[in-house]
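Hey all, quick one. A colleague (J.T.) asked me to put the flavin-adenine dinucleotide job into the tracker so the inputs and the structure tokens live in one place instead of scattered across chat threads. No bug as far as I know, just bookkeeping. Sequence used:
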Amino acid sequence: MSKLKVAIIGGGIAGCATAYYLSKDGHDVTLFERDSLASHASGFALGAINPVIPETREPAYEALSTYSIGLHKHLADVLAGSGASGESLNFVRKPSVLLVRNEVEATAMRRVYEANASDHSYDLRWLSLGELSHIEARISGDVIGGLYIGEAYEVDPYKLTLSMWQAAEQNGAQMMNREVNEIDVSGGRVTGVVTGAQTFEADAVVAAAGPWSSQLLLGLGIAVPVSPLKGQIVRLNTPSPPMKVSLWWDEDYATTKSDGLTWIGTTEEEVGFDDRTSDAARDRIIGSAIAMLPYLEDAELVHQTACLRPMTPDKMPIIDSAAGPEGLVISTGAGRQGIALGPAMGIATAALVTGVESPIDVSAFSLDRFS
Ligand SMILES: Cc1cc2nc3c(=O)[nH]c(=O)nc-3n(C[C@H](O)[C@H](O)[C@H](O)COP(=O)(O)OP(=O)(O)OC[C@H]3O[C@@H](n4cnc5c(N)ncnc54)[C@H](O)[C@@H]3O)c2cc1C
């Protein structure tokens, strides 16, 4: 296969994973990032990698997620210690428990459990509060049970994104710390990208600009329904022992991360590109977490972060090479699952760039599903 000159726009997990897989195959990769690598959602996400339980999402989404989890396991082995930082990605198996507080929630969750209990790949168990208390004794008595998912994982999303980039760099990829203002097109195919007064020629362009992808592609007349959905996380220091599982309820969660802090979240705020933290979100997140884990009342707030998820109307990513001029590949819109899906998005995007068959079918993630 001839080697391509590829410009990737965006240094989040979607762009860095694509750079990693393209550079591994010897392609000439330049990544354009206007801020710094993983300085937005990919650096500040929780880093939960929860499997998609069948029948809770579309089969194609479930397949993408399952495939990506396999890649995560592989990356944790091959990237650990390989980058300039030499650090581990803090990829760990961390069971999740989806908590329920009333019979309506319990009936719905039990149905999911019963439909999938015989599939041992997820290690699902239905737990009463009594059983749950053997795993996490500090849960509020308002909880009546939960769905335990044994095959769930956590990673440090910043280290993962950076490590993929560092491996790409070792394969010869280069980074330009610049904003791309325009994608150049001639004769129906991309010819490069424009940053300020400079034009960089390329055979292919990957638009992986997170929630900014729609602005970027509007210049080409391509309407991409990706919008920013702000999420905030509060990190707490507590003298109490770390949580051995992550707990989930409504849109919220709590888990102890590899930094020893208990991370609680989150919000889903449609406030445009405003990525500032707010006191109102802090108070809501803390109130919700204390209601589930009363011991957190005594915790000390260490840090609060906010960042923007790239969200599509159907909460599925866009991975597409047929939506615009030849040579353009769009890779964005992973919403709340972008860290989990990132490696699969990267490998599939790289395949679309080079024209080889993708190891995972991404036809369900084309842009034209919205038309
Ligand atoms: C609070 C919170 C918690 C989360 N928790 C999880 C989780 O536990 N598990 C999970 O799987 N996912 C989680 N996510 C989602 C995940 O973080 C995102 O889906 C993912 O990081 C998106 O990656 P991305 O590369 O598409 O976008 P981004 O990380 O936003 O990267 C896009 C990059 O493009 C750059 N850029 C934009 N325009 C240009 C331009 N014109 N020129 C040059 N550069 C440009 C930006 O500066 C940015 O660095 C969470 C998100 C939030 C907000």
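Adding what we noticed when we looked at it: The domain at 5-84+156-226+313-370 is CATH 3.50.50.60 (FAD/NAD(P)-binding domain). The chain has nine helices and 20 strands.
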